[in-house]
Protein 1
Amino acid sequence: MQLLSVSGCGRRLELGSGWNGPGLADNLEKILAQISSTGKESGPLTFSENGLDRHDALVASSILEIIRAAQAQGLEVQFETLPDSIRKLIGLALAVPPREPESHQRDNLFTVIGKKSLRILQGSRHFFEFAGELTYSFGRLVRGKARFRREDFWLTLQSCGVGALPIVALISILVGVILGFVGAVQLRKFGATIYMIDLVGLAVARELGCIMAGIIMSGRTGAAFAAQIGSMNVNQEVDALETLGISPMEFLVLPRALSMILMMPLLTLFADALGFFGGFIVALPMGISPGEFWYQLTESLSLQHISIGILKSFFFGIIVASAGCYYGLRSGRSSSAVGEAATKAVVAGITWIIVLDAAFAFVLEAMGW
Amino acid sequence: MENEHIEVRDLTMAYGDFVLMRDLNFTIRKGEVFIIMGGSGCGKSTLMRHLIGLKDPAAGDIYYNGESFISASADQRELMLRRFGVMYQSGALWSSLTLAENVGLPLVQFSSFSKRQIRSIVSYKLSIVGLAGFEEFYPAEISGGMAKRAGVARALALDPEVLYLDEPSAGLDPLSARRLDDTILELRNSLGMTIVVVTHELESIFQIGDNSVFLDVDTRTQAATGNPRELRDSCPDEKIRNFLSRGELGAGKPPE
Ligand SMILES: Nc1ncnc2c1ncn2[C@@H]1O[C@H](COP(=O)(O)OP(=O)(O)O)[C@@H](O)[C@H]1O
Ligand SMILES: [Mg+2]
């Protein structure tokens, strides 16, 4: 069917039954192609209605495209020839000229690398700013000037403390059991089963207690911080705080960081104790009596080992809270950006916990602790 | 009557024990613009949530073309829902999708159009609400009024039989609000859509409203139904005449 015909006074578009048929898309491309090869001199674009009863969205949208193409070509369009049912809506659609899309220039490889490095540099600058501001708010806290709601602080304290006990307990006991079991099986070959207690004790006290607590808190609470603050960012709640002259750093970040720093050492102690208990569960069937277990544990462990774990947990707490709050505050303004922020907070939290732990291992080794 | 589209019968709305409105009775005819009005917080949005099935009534029933909406089976209900287009009070655009994807999602899910055709329809719908060329913008990158208009475009995506608009012109500049009113009238005139609008912009109530219901927060029920211009001029209830004319004095001289 010929939809676009040349008549005496220019181009004429037949709006017929073919428009509702499945062939519409093909026809549309053909018509657009014809129009784009038409010059001004061929006269105005007119429409003639031929069996188009009730139009659907596709008809209207196609006509709109055709008219836009014709206008781009400089053709005059005779709107009054459009069927009544479409004319006014098309008029509304054309009333506001389309916004010009910004021209996107393609970057070459060097620009891409350059932009990327700049972004990384800027990212680390942002992070140092964040760290600086956080330190400064701690200073204000010490001087009693920080502004935040005490209720928020108690609530986060509860969720990072008591709320985390069950999961920390479960993981710590299981890690103690696994470690004890693996150790016992190996050491039994040398008749030194009893030394599994040293293994469990040292490993849990120095490394695993605080790392487990840190990783659990990163996944549990760090992600929650990022999601809470991120969604506040989406709703402009953070902006609302800032315009009131309330620093989000003090109001949102400080209570969270403080609870984390206070609770991580306690959680680590708790994880240590339950890790030992896990080892104890394995030791009993290996023929080690409770008395022997206790003696060997206190013999192998000194306060120094425990306090190394506690010291590290303090830093892990700072890492988890900062990662959560930092990515939350910097999150984009959409639901998927909030999810991304939570993911980044967890990944960064765990990564930095492990990196810092390795650094501690080197330093402590060098110091002979 | 033949052209009754939506009927609300003895509807009581409640949140738990808190009864918001009771004994609502009104009829919305096919192809009319129906206004739900009333003071802020009286339950207009809640009434809309009942009409579109987001909330079940405490008592009463709602009929679409004579079929009960409340006691419809899940399948029937889904079919009925498919014929609604809804713009929520806050816009409720999906924030991680571009405007084109927001408007196109219902088409992708429920129609058999090709990608090319969907692109064409989406840009037509966005053009109708004056957002041509904003296809690739994310909701966070446009203003609140633009988000409302994009919400209208999304509500129009499936060419609904009933269009629900919750305070469409709140937060729009006068020109855009006027344009939106024109669009609403045009959708009614050329497509015969039934359009239910929650609003208290008096100017647009009088310009577009064929019929209305007035919810009274004090008596917790509907105070009047009828054509808003007639209500303003001859409603026996003084409260309603007040509501409908007080703003008018501020907006300009009341036409006789
Ligand atoms: N989820 C809810 N639970 C309890 N009460 C609600 C809920 N949503 C709204 N309300 C109450 O219902 C009333 C009407 O709300 P709404 O329908 O949003 O009013 P409006 O007429 O301004 O649109 C308000 O008093 C509000 O407090
Ligand atoms: Mg409302």
Protein 2
Amino acid sequence: MGLEAKLTQDGFITTTIDSVIAWARKSSVWPMPMGISCCAIEMIAAADPKYDIARFGSEVMRFTPRQCDLMIVAGTVTYKMAQVVRRIYDQMPDPKWVIAMGACTSSGGMYRSYNVVQGIDQFLPVDVYTAGCPPRPENLLNALMTIQEKIGKTKARDYQNRSLKELELSQI
Amino acid sequence: MNLKELITDKVKEKFGAALEEVSDFRDDLCLTIKNNQIVQLAKFLKEDTELEFVMLKDVTAIDWATRKKRFTAVYHVYSFKLNYTLRIKANIDDDPPAIESVTPVWRSAEWYERETWDMYGIKFINHPDLRRMYMPEGFEHHPLRKDFPVLGIPGSLPLPYKAE
Ligand code: SF4
């Protein structure tokens, strides 16, 4: 980061609150591993030492949505499961992001069938889609980096009122 | 006397004309029984000391689409004593399709029959808990029927709201 060099000089830096917060956010994106089927194996592979998702500050896979910023939907989402995925997403605190990992989540994939949702963007706001069946871990890491880039551009207050807006909309 | 003859003869002797058809396709013995005799046959196969078909492997159905008796219920039962798997079929002529449940005979039939109800819409009379197995409660169709479109019926399965 070059921070150490700065610190040995005067001991302080000047910046804006927004960029500090964006930097902190993007360097510690905690994923919610929504591993529903085969794609989950590649998501797990992304966390192992070979691909090492920790390099991006995202090694802390939390199994409670209350502690997560990023939902990695990895697997085939059926209509029955869609309710659960959405509920877990709703339980995550703002700001939050979503990766649609794999062909199934992006478009239904090879399951062109009555029971599989043909793309989770029908009920979730997706930030990044990854292609592949399953996508390789590098692909997932690339998606993560894309999200980091996106987070880097946000302002601290950008997401403040999102849940409220969603709540209001859902009551209409 | 070989196994198949033993089974066929015993069932024939007991059920007579109710045994509609005996087929032996690719070494699989299959008995077609009149649909109102299914529970009696199940009891007989399970309790007869020479047969002892104590294990029910599967219950499923066939949708023939164009036949007059559109649905056929299919059962696979296994006897440890004979080390033999037997298939039983029953053509259903009721509309809406219904057949007596074999759950009182083989306990494992409960979930198999729920699945068959879910997928084909065959009602199992006297079933202890005939709910859907895979599809959500409140779904009104039966996906494995031949007239069900493979991509489903739009709007029949609800999605959660999306606020944007
Ligand atoms: S995209 Fe392929 S690997 Fe991923 S969940 Fe679907 S079928 Fe499995």
